[in-house]
Amino acid sequence: MPPVVGLAVGHGTGAELAEVFTRVLGVLTRDHPTGVTLVRSPRLYHSYHSLCGEGAGEPVATLTREDTDHYEGFCRSLAARGAGAVFRTAVNAQSLYLVRQRLKAVKVDPFAADDGEALLVRDEAQGFYTGTNRHTPSAVTRTMEFSRETTAEVVSYALERARRHWPDGRLGPVVMAYKFHLLDGVFGTWVAELSDRLGVRIQLCQPDTVNRDLITHGLADRTVLVAGNEWADIMHVVLLDRFGGERQENRCTENVYLHPDVRGLVEYQTVHGSADNLAGRDLVNPVATVRAAAAVAERHAGCAGAQREVERALARVLDRGVATADLGGAYGTTAVLDALLAELGETGVPPARQPGAVAVTVPGEGR
User: Fold this and answer.
1) pTM
2) In CATH, what is the architecture of 106-249?
3) Cα–Cα distance between 213 and 205 in angstroms, integer?
């Protein structure tokens, strides 16, 4: 059976980046003995800017719920088919975080600084970013929660993932960055219980304390940094710049679902947003999407060395100055992609007939 990979597309530059992902995955898997089944969601999911055209308040909330329910169902259908990965272009954050709450998601991103490595595991399953809104004419009331069960699952996964990342078992400090002072001491009690049960010393810190330590001391080697969205979302781009030597426009990350119904399904995304202002203009930077396709090919389609091959090809292309405007170049999305695929040995086969990836549409309501 061929590996199954999902594809979910949002408004803005989603259609252009879906084409980038499909073409790169096709080239990287061209020698795969069974090909790769690419399952595309039939729904075009809203970005924040596309929702803004629908009004405000309850009309937007209704569309958000529809996107949420559809994307959750799509992820569940992929898991039922045995899919290991889904690539998603940027969509409205409210819909995303409702799905992440329901399916208990964490974002995983490693960093390599000059003085060592660190692993960020971002708790996307609870807190202010999740939750629901109630509208009145003069107020929006947001209801959210933290739970002992979810906190335990997130921390346990972070430690499991860290031990996979550093298989010799040697871990540095385990730090949790949360606004726990707002939770009446309950969150601190949960973390103390977890520390005792898991046999690991966990440092629970306010976000400003973590920031101060990062400024003063940098990242201790093999830090396991478990963080709530309230801090990690804002700090992700800073961590990338200071400790990863990367810009968000070039970076992809993975979201791992912990809910037992979909456990093992990994969602890949670009760190940059939907860039609606660039839609249809052939200007969006494809690098993050290219890297996502390489990660999916290597980790979920058995294409060993795909990421290394793509990084070398990207370096050659960028060294020649073939880049989009945000990277200082004067080339469009398609020109950068064509140059990259030429480096990877594409032989002029039209994208729709690329060997390897096979597009399959899931039955269901589109929009």
Assistant:
1) 0.91
2) 3-Layer(aba) Sandwich (3.40)
3) 10
Dihedral over alpha carbons 325, 328, 332, 336 (to 10 degrees): -140
Residue ranges of the domains in the chain? Answer: 1-104+259-367, 106-249
Residue 282 DSSP SS3 = coil
Sorted by sequence, the CB contacts under 8 Å of residue 114 that are 6+ apart come out as: none
Residue 269 φ/ψ region, left for φ over 0, alpha for ψ in the -120 to 50 degree band, beta for the rest: beta
HSE-CB for 6 with a 13 A CA cutoff? 30
CB atoms within 10 A of CB 205: 19
Instruction: Please list, in sequence order, all residues whose beta carbon lies within 8 angstroms of the beta carbon of residue 102, skipping any fewer than 6 positions away.
Output: 68, 72, 259
Q: Which of 11-20, 191-200, 354-363 has the lowest mean pLDDT?
A: 354-363
Percent residues over pLDDT 70 in the chain = 94
3-state helix, strand, coil in the chain (%, to 5): 45, 20, 35
Say if residues 346 and 28 touch (Cβ distance below 8 Å).
no
**Using one digit for the tens of pLDDT, what is the confidence trace for 42-98?**
999 999 989 887 678 888 888 999 999 999 999 999 999 999 999 999 999 999 999
H or E stretch including 105?
strand 105-113
Cα separation, 292 vs 326, whole angstroms:
19
- Cα gap 179→209, rounded to integer Å: 11
Dihedral of CA atoms 111, 113, 115, 121 in degrees, nearest 10, equals -20
Residue 359 predicted with pLDDT over 70: no
Contact indicator for 240, 247 with CB cutoff of 8 Å: yes
Which residue, among 74, 72, 3, has the nearest Cα to 37 in the 3D structure? 3
Q: Is 55 exposed, middle or buried (0-12, 13-18, 19+ CB in 10 A)?
A: exposed
What is the distance between the alpha carbons of residues 101 and 99, in angstroms, rounded to a whole number? 5
